Give the backbone structure.
Amino acid sequence: LGAAAAALLFTGAGLAADWWLEDARAALSLRILAPSLPFMAVGATLRGYFMARRNVSSSSRAQIFEQAVRIGVVALLIGKALPYGIETACAAIVLGNTVSEALSCLYMVISWRRDLKRFAPGEKQKPQHLLRDYGGIVAPITATRGIGSLLVTVENVLVPGCLATFLGARETALAQFGQLKGMAMPVLFFPFSFLSTLSTLLLPEIAEAHSAGKKDRLQALICRTVLITVTLSVLMGGLFRAFAAELGETLYHSSEIGFYIGVLGPVMPFMYLESMVDGILKGLGEQLSTFKYSVCDSVLRILLVLALVPRLGMQGFLFVMLFSNIFTGFLNLHRLIRVTGVRVQWMRWVVKPLFSVGAAWAAYYFAFAVWAAPLLPPLVAFLCGAALMALVYFLFLWLTGCVSPQDFSGMKKSPKSGKA
């Protein structure tokens, strides 16, 4: 499948650049990206294998290795490519992606072969039996990813055009869209890398409890996952909101990116929870539900983009993102509650985290921002203020009984569900 997608992308790169992206210079980058698709496909399969094996280290090392190679290749080539124009510079960047995907896949194959030696020889299952047994799982997920990718591509093509209608200049529209997608969003989703480790540990446990019919353990695991996701994402949302301007200036020397971070920061709990609950639902065999929600969300986003962005510009697109994440988050959470019978713990999941982040912000503002921050260098003030907010936040979570150290430890032991 990866090879077929690569052949399609390579042969259709010219048409895609002309018709979809409306920039013929993108064809070279698309052709360079094409060989990475088979490696992405195999790498995704092996990451699923390591997740099922509760093997965090192999997958994590592969991802770190991949990022290091990508950064190294781009750093080596970008300076030499820039004098030849933007087409060559973009090609150098995507070349880093293709090389890193290939080497990361090779690393995971080697790790996989080593891990297989731990198993005793057993009966091999024929490919047709694999399709028969797992086709009902694979087909909805594949359809979701395929249709979802198509709809996201349509959205990513429409947004710059709609922004250009509002601004009157396509280059300015592409610059604003690139700032949001390529600079602000990676900052907002960086903390989710820590929660992805949680999913690697807990989601196989959830799937196993579901298949074994252990309802109490299943509900306890889901409650723990939701609690950890909510408490960490509420903190990050508060930090992004409080220090948006500092993050924009420190990382990118841009107040506009700081504005994007500040607007989207409070939606972090919905973004993180939506991603986590989506994975849980797939582990419970609810692929068709997530597929319907994903398609519905993408169609709504496209309609809202067409209706709002030409009239409101980037503010309209930010509203689309806010609405989309809240809408999909509620749909996924409602389905999870309906399927598992988990009761919403309003105090632990909503009231206490919001109260704690409010107390943390008040402590930062009245005890630090007004008196101490003006006396310190900007970067030092930013780091100290963020550390103070995090400390006060977790202190209030503990004082209110929202969390305990046991909630963040003993991932492989059977957790006990707590009450607010």
Q: What stands out?
A: DSSP finds 16 helices and no strands in the chain. The CA atoms of residues 25 and 87 lie 6 Å apart.
